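Hi everyone, sorry if this is the wrong subforum. Our group has a chain we'd like a structural model of before ordering constructs, and none of us has done structure prediction before. Sequence below.
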Amino acid sequence: MNEKRLKILKETAHHRQGNLTVIIENIVDPHNVGAVMRSCDSVGIHEMFLLFTENSLGQEDFTIGKRASAGSRKWVDLHVYTDAESCFEHVKSRYSKVLSTHFGEDSVSLYDLDLTESVALMFGNEKDGLSKEALSYSDGNFLIPMMGMTQSLNLSVACAVTLFEAQRQRLKKNMYAESNPWPIEKREALLKNYLQRKHKVYGDGRNHTYRIDLET
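Answer:
Right subforum, don't worry. Here is the predicted structure as tokens:
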């Protein structure tokens, strides 16, 4: 590995935000997973969760668009669940609260949230939004303010808007440098893991199908 590549890997691990993640439920378009993964990697998220409560994968292979995910699929870990209880037990063991994109009486603006706290951001699918089951695990709801005729955004776009607002807030508090809340030993362990996986191949290079293990 050349020095430039090693430097990028070290900076990536150093910038990772161990108290920020994303949950996507019942996604319809699998190519959106790749786009969300790319946004996660861009703002320093090292893992994300896919939850299927209504329609199980039905297979162990899940197609992710190579163009959308680029190299991020190698550096962002995917946890895939078909059982909500198991998924949120995992999430809540690592993150203090779950906030959901959902229209309700208690929904607040994205820009009124404190996204420097330990939080998992949950997004519903492109057609039906979040299920009642998933919302039962949520600690609060938020909306992205809309100023035009369009009152909704594509899932991957909504996720990107939200994540880059989180990045803006975290940059302001220097959380990608000296004030990173994730312990340095965990970031160093992540770097070692990245160095081990640098040669790992994801996908077959032709149809861009990537193996994802369902978690129990």
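For your construct planning: The chain has one domain: 3-211. The first strand starts at residue 20 and ends at 25.
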